[in-house]
Write a structure and sequence with these properties.
globular; 9 helices; single chain; about 30% helix; alpha+beta; three-stranded antiparallel sheet; about 325 residues
């Protein structure tokens, strides 16, 4: 997209609403939702300015906006010899301001026929471009069960631990082996999906101040443990959370044979997690684990905002 007029032309062809995104960005930065032509120029300029400030590059592109879809991603591994396998899918639909907060694997409500089509298309895309290393192809699935390619992340992702839990595959180890030029030492038929896994991103944020970042020194912390509980973090007692970086400070992962058992285990783990000295979103995550819509797996990318409003209406947060 080279100009406002060029963007308007594309938008008229694919239909409003549309989404402008930073070409070299992520994490919700450099993104603007446009509902009609009247607001196009302003949002276009805002997106380019934010992209330049955040990523040093103001290139943006345009895509059709799918309202409140499921955000499904497929984990892939390819080697330098043309072999590509998938490690199943993740549901990353629980997002606030386009930033993932909770992920689960596999997707609870995805139909098997669509699941296989997503796997096939993701693998085909990697093979066509000759991709090797670990990577993730992300899709949006609308309420009519149509799915759309969104992007590919050519790297390991924050939420890779839940895939490791259900597949038994060490993704980081595979990434290193592939980088060394080795053949993949596992075949697709060797990988079996077992159980369910959840990941809660624990952020240094104050949910009672519109989730504002909350840097500072950790006075005391206690992390849960036990079978099926995993902690990925570098924080410790006395650690100083900087205001200059992303607010995520810890990943809490649970695994269990069934999804409901996994959710119950996450509730316990969240209740046992203590981080004093700063505010975190731990309590908010605990609330989510008791939401009927989340428990039933029916949530979409718009659910988080609706849930926050519900909590404000009933006085759980201010």
């Amino acid at each position: 997209m080279t100009s406002v007029e060029h963007g308007k032309q594309i938008a008229s062809e694919i239909g409003y609403p549309v989404m402008i995104k930073a070409s070299n960005g992520g994490g919700g930065r450099g993104m603007r939702l446009i509902h009609d032509e009247e607001e196009f120029a302003e949002q276009y300029n805002n997106a380019k300015a934010e992209a330049k400030a955040c990523f040093g590059d103001d290139d943006v592109y345009l895509e059709k906006y799918i309202e409140n879809p499921k955000h499904i991603e497929v984990q892939l591994v390819g080697d330098k010899h043309g072999h590509v396998i998938h490690l199943f899918e993740r549901d990353c639909s629980f997002q606030r301001r386009h930033q993932k907060m909770i992920e689960e694997a596999p997707c609870h409500i995805l139909k098997n026929e669509m699941r296989q089509r997503l796997f096939n298309d993701a693998i085909k895309a990697c093979q066509v471009v000759g991709y090797y290393s670990v990577g993730t192809i992300e899709f949006l699935v609308d309420k009519y069960d149509n799915y759309y390619f969104m992007e590919m992340n050519t790297r390991i992702q924050v939420e890779h631990p839940i895939t490791e839990m259900i597949s038994g595959v060490d993704i980081v180890k595979l990434q290193i082996q592939v980088a060394m030029g080795n053949n993949l030492n596992i075949k697709q038929e060797d990988i079996k999906q077992n159980g369910y896994a959840l990941e809660c991103r624990i952020n240094a944020e104050d949910m009672n101040k519109d989730f504002a970042p909350c840097p500072g020194q950790i006075a005391f912390m206690h992390v849960p443990g036990g079978r099926g509980v995993r902690i990925d973090s570098a924080i410790y007692n006395g650690y100083v959370v900087s205001p200059y970086y992303d607010s995520m400070i810890l990943k809490l992962i649970t695994y269990a044979p069934t999804r409901l058992e996994c959710i119950k285990k996450m509730r316990v783990a969240l209740s046992e997690l203590i981080i004093d000295g700063i505010e975190t979103n731990t309590k908010f995550q605990y609330y989510v684990m008791h939401s009927r819509e989340f428990i039933e797996g029916r949530y979409d990318t718009g659910f988080c905002d609706r849930f926050i409003k519900e909590l404000k209406d009933n006085g759980s947060i201010v």
